[in-house]
From TrEMBL:
<dbReference type="Pfam" id="PF07676">
    <property type="entry name" value="PD40"/>
</dbReference>
<dbReference type="InterPro" id="IPR011659">
    <property type="entry name" value="WD40"/>
</dbReference>
<protein>
    <submittedName>
        <fullName>TolB-like translocation protein</fullName>
    </submittedName>
</protein>
<dbReference type="InterPro" id="IPR011042">
    <property type="entry name" value="6-blade_b-propeller_TolB-like"/>
</dbReference>
Length: 340
């Protein structure tokens, strides 16, 4: 056998082996997805139905309960979150909505790579525009007026707990369809001085009601900061340290956020920051919260926690924003809440 023929046979064998491994991986992933899509005894009542974003007194979310409607955008009455949920045909990894505008971040796993996209939605959950994403969906927000939409993706790594990760945060003007691909192009003022660094990352945007001001997390030099930004001014200014995934209260006076409680650990506590005094109030949730919380009203914060005993599932919990009271289970098998 000639040397060339031997090398060709080795190459063909390697290709066949890789194809077999890839096929096996796809089949195993399909088996896991099929199992997760089977209804489970004792699970919540979920039915197909019409869901619109211009209805009042609904709490929308991504359904995490096992069954055919898993990952579908669903809703329950705000006054009765334990009621049977209505699921739409839209499926998302992350979702948020306000003022009749929605954003859905999707991620499809392929043989060679993932396909990630952001869908801009109208009040009927119809896709207005699709934007390719540079990484894995992480956070999504819509401004109170519906004019601005923001999303954050992981460009590498799998989570904030990873030692090596990079984020990219974008803001879309839904009136002009002008996209700011990355907040890393914004001018930074840190501790009163102009600041530039190669390791700058942003994530977790939350919008004020003036259609310009936003808050977000800035990470640089192994520190995280709460920043206040201006969309029109393309600039951000640091306010305080050790703030991640901020969420602005409806009255615009406070920010709920997760605070790393031990250096170099993946443990976070949920806090509320008064923007006028910069006073921090720890909330009574004792579990580590790795989520961007959502304000249900001016007095209550909601967030996702892993479902006990179920890998890959989360439950929505709520807690008073004044640092008193007790956490309570809001919706089992759910994530990405958005009150309408």
């Amino acid at each position: 056998m000639t040397s060339l023929r031997r090398r060709l046979l080795i190459l063909v064998a390697a290709v066949v082996l890789l194809a077999g491994l890839a096929t096996g991986m796809v089949l195993r992933a399909a088996d896991r997805a099929d199992e997760a899509n089977r209804p489970q005894a004792g699970g919540p009542a979920v039915s197909s139905g019409k869901l619109t974003l211009d209805r009042k007194n609904l709490l929308t979310f991504v359904n995490a309960a096992a069954g055919p409607h898993r990952t579908a955008v669903a809703s329950v009455p705000s006054a009765d979150p334990g009621a049977g949920r209505t699921a739409s045909d839209l499926k998302c990894a992350r979702f948020y909505a306000a003022a009749g505008t929605g954003v859905c971040l999707q991620s499809d796993t392929g043989v060679l790579k993932q396909s990630n996209r952001a869908l801009l939605l109208d009040a009927e959950l119809r896709t207005v525009r699709t934007f390719p994403l540079a990484g894995i969906p992480s956070r999504a927000r819509v401004s109170p007026s519906g004019r601005f939409v923001a999303w954050t993706v992981f460009v590498s790594g799998e989570s904030y707990a990873s030692a090596f990760f990079s984020t990219r945060t974008s803001i879309l003007d839904t009136r002009t369809m002008k996209l700011i691909p990355s907040l890393e192009t914004f001018a930074i003022t840190l501790d009163g001085k102009s600041y530039k660094a190669a390791d700058v990352n942003f994530w977790g945007v939350t919008f004020a009601s003036d259609d310009d001001t936003f808050y977000a997390t800035l990470n640089t030099a192994n520190k995280t900061y709460l920043v206040r930004g201006s969309v029109s001014g393309k600039s951000v200014t640091t306010l305080v340290e050790n703030v991640e995934c901020p969420s602005l209260s409806p009255d615009g006076t406070r920010v709920a956020f997760k605070k790393r409680v031990l250096s170099r650990t993946d443990l976070w506590r949920e806090y509320v920051l008064d923007l006028r005094t910069l006073r921090e109030t720890p909330l009574t949730e004792r579990h580590s919260v790795d989520d961007q919380a959502t304000w249900l009203d001016d007095d209550t914060v909601a967030y996702a926690l892993p479902t006990e005993g179920k890998v890959g599932s989360t439950d929505l919990w709520s807690v008073p924003a004044n640092g008193k009271g007790k956490p309570r289970l809001l919706i089992a098998g759910a994530s990405s809440p958005a009150p309408l």
